[in-house]
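Hi all, a correction to my earlier message: I attached the wrong file for NAD(P)/FAD-dependent oxidoreductase. Here's the right sequence:
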Amino acid sequence: MNEYDVVVVGGGAAGLSAALVLTRARRRVAVLDAGRPRNAPAAHMQGFLSRDGMPPAELLAAGRAEVTGYGGELISGTVRELLPTGAEGFRVRTAEGRLLFARRIVVATGLRDEIPDIPGLAGRWGRDVLHCPYCHGYEVRDRPLGVLGGSPETVGHALLIRQWSDDVTFFSNGYESTADERQRLAARDIRIVDGAVSRIVIDGDRLAGIELDWASVVAPHALFVRPRLVPADGLLAALGAEVIDVRTGRTSVAGVWAAGNAVDPRAQVITAAGAGSAAAIDLNADLVDEDVRAALPFSAAQERRVAAILANTH
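and the right structure:
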């Protein structure tokens, strides 16, 4: 059986939350997931009410168990083709050769973090090279912290990180901050270290220092990096779909909803889960409307049109 009421593309917090609501609404649901969650490197997930400190993998495992417990189907795979098929809905083809048909689609494909190409940086990502102070700041509070510069936005990032520690260093990494920016950093006692960062120094299994192009090495407890957030919105772009209702994730393509980081890069796990739930509720209401229309008897005018069409086919 490869026909579903809804195919959810993406098995993170947004996708699983949508699937949970829809399976509890007694819809036939499949979740297609490539198995590459954005927060996999992180040891713990913070700021999720009742789940604070839970490892991300445990949250996803619990969500998968809940979805399958209500009859949802989990399918490992990457969607390569998503095409409207008219009144019937959508055809979904995976890179692994699976073919599915769905009346409705939820795209919850997340995003990827694009970080500077500095030796040693990627290997510490989610451990002591961090991006979100709301996710990780409390765990490194009151410790010496570094912030990697490179753009005007990173200055604001450093000012934000100062909330968690009074020992913050801004590594400009080649960014020439303005006089106003330097004054703002100085007002919050944030040190500025100029020069390009050439590599991250690792000793054993910890961040041991930051090497600059003029050979000086300093060693904060953790380094915050502001990544470039790249939504995994290729399926939406191929459909020409844009979100037209941010409350529900309804898009400009009939039958397609979107939720989570694919359309809201700044959403945290709890926010993404809420967006998945909102999308599912709106989507199910749309299916209910369609079910009602299908159940209504033909009007006399509709019956005449059908009769005329059938007569012309003989």
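Sorry for the mix-up. Residues 269-295 form the longest helix (27 residues).
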